[in-house]
Structure formats: structure tokens, C-alpha cells
């Protein structure tokens, strides 16, 4: 178990609405950032161990897994992930070298490149999705206080409670 998993950060709990300097929207955004950071930190090592790819490469695989089999143009992937196109080109090359991504030219556009998951990538994601989903659930549960956990249960119904109490009340 990585050191970061042994002692998860204390849950980010917010004061009651209207009790601080920040409006509710910014407070909610801070909760989302804290939860996202906790998930990313935990996922980095799990993704590397189970899939053999970086976290950023994993995000590309996840994005393409939710698309039609024809995939997406590289510019769309860069825009959707908020990544510079130059960095994306390197990551796609690594995924292609690993046999997880196929690159094709876009018909009628000499410069356009389309990327899609290979069958190998689909199989790998299918085999590891339960483990990866469990990692996300646990990281979210460990990073949130009771009120935030209750709100998150609308998105992730079986979010565990680190204290062993039922979630979603």
C-alpha cells in the first residue's frame, strides 16, 4: 500500500452555508477540488500498477471508452481534457506504442488525426474497471465529511463510509 493510502488526508468539511467569506458556489467548488485531488492521488499508483500507463494516459483511455468506436479527433481530445496538443501527441504515441490506441487520418482533412481504443484497450479496461471504480469510491469516501458524502451519494450511491456507518442516510 502506498504511503499516501496509509494515512489519507483528513476529510475536507465546510462550515455551514453563509458562515464564511466564500459564497456557496466557491465553497462547493473547493469541496470538488479536494475530492478530485484525493481521487487523482490514489488513482495515479493504482492505474500505473494495473494498466501500466500514466494517469494522464488513463484519462485519454476513459474519454475514448465513452465515445463511439470510431473515436475522436486529436483536437477534440485535447479540448475535452484541457491538455496542450503537444503533450497529447506524446501521450497518444505512448498509448499507440502499447497497442491501446489506433490512429487514423481523417477523411478529407490532410492534417486531421482520429484516435480510438483498440480491442486490447477495451478488454483491459473491462478487466480492471471494478478495481478502479472501487479505488475512486474509497478515495471519495476518505476525503469527504458526512455532509459532502451524503451529497455525493446522489452520484455514487454505494459510496462507503470510513466510519462504517451507512451512507446516504
UniProtKB/TrEMBL annotation:
Record-annotated HTH marR-type domain positions: 25-161
GO MF assignments: DNA-binding transcription factor activity
PROSITE patterns: HTH_MARR_2
InterPro entries: HTH_MarR-typ (IPR000835), MarR/SlyA-like (IPR039422), WH-like_DNA-bd_sf (IPR036388), WH_DNA-bd_sf (IPR036390)
SMART domains from the UniProt entry: HTH_MARR
GO-annotated biological processes: response to stress
TM regions (residue ranges): none
PANTHER family in UniProt: MARR FAMILY REGULATORY PROTEIN, TRANSCRIPTIONAL REGULATOR, MARR FAMILY
Protein name as annotated: MarR family transcriptional regulator
Amino acid at each position: 500500500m502506498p504511503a499516501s493510502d496509509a494515512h489519507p488526508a483528513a476529510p475536507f468539511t465546510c462550515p455551514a452555508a453563509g458562515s464564511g467569506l466564500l459564497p456557496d458556489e466557491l465553497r462547493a467548488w473547493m469541496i470538488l477540488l479536494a475530492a478530485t485531488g484525493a481521487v487523482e492521488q490514489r488513482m495515479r499508483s493504482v492505474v500505473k500498477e494495473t494498466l501500466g500507463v500514466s494517469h494522464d494516459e488513463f484519462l485519454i483511455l476513459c474519454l475514448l471508452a465513452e465515445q463511439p468506436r470510431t473515436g475522436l479527433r486529436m483536437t477534440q481530445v485535447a479540448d475535452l481534457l484541457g491538455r496542450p496538443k503537444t503533450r497529447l501527441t506524446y501521450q497518444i504515441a505512448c498509448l499507440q506504442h502499447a497497442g491501446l490506441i489506433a490512429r487514423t487520418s481523417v477523411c478529407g482533412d490532410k492534417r486531421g488525426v482520429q484516435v480510438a481504443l483498440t480491442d486490447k484497450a477495451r478488454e483491459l479496461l473491462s478487466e480492471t474497471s471494478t478495481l478502479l471504480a472501487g479505488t475512486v469510491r474509497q478515495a471519495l469516501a476518505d476525503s469527504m465529511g458526512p455532509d459532502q458524502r451524503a451529497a455525493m451519494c446522489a452520484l455514487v450511491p454505494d459510496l462507503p463510509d470510513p466510519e462504517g456507518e451507512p451512507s446516504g442516510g
